[in-house]
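Database export, one record per block. Field names are fixed; values are copied verbatim from the stored entry.
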Amino acid sequence: MPIDKNSIPITVGIMGGSASGKTTFAKALAEELADLSPVVLNQDSYFRDWSEYSEAERERVITANHPDAVLWDALITDIKKLRSRNAIDVPTPGTRGAQRGDEKTSIQPSDVVIVEGHLIFWSEDLRDLMDIKLFLDVDAHERVLRRMLRDVAQRGGDLEWAINWYRRDVLPNFPVYTEPCKQYADLVIPFQDENPVALHTLIAAIRAKIQEGTPSP
């Protein structure tokens, strides 16, 4: 299906707690829609670098689970550009990726823009740009186990550090900034295990929306 430059791309938001499977679900969705060359933006790519703080202060204030962690203006601006059929460049200045010196790449517009992250529905301005909002619902114990396996077994992290970070940053922020955002979801998807029914239902809905077309403003 060719890109209709007179229509606004379908924007899908995927939210859920830490280690709920957001990246896995977004990847599966993108693979099923490969003929449309979907764009996937990860909220984590817009984490601020905290460079305005000294090293000692940074250790005190740094977070990944409070809205302060995200450069919202940059993320929202990039999504607006993609929805206007304009390319964007990543990483954005002021983010951790830019601080690390990640190679700059250009992301081209597509009929489908997928945004995933554990804080994305917190921003009303960002929610307003999304045509479909999904929340992946996973038991808290399962999410903790997945996170420990990911951070320690897969990424070679230190177990004690991972547990301390979870206690310090995830536990106090999840019930305040992530879990309540479930109310904004159009669909709440159980994702203890793979959920092919939900995935293929969503794919059908996206293709139908594209077929209908959304005129440009």
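Remark 1: The mean pLDDT is 93.
Remark 2: The radius of gyration is 18 Å.
End of record.
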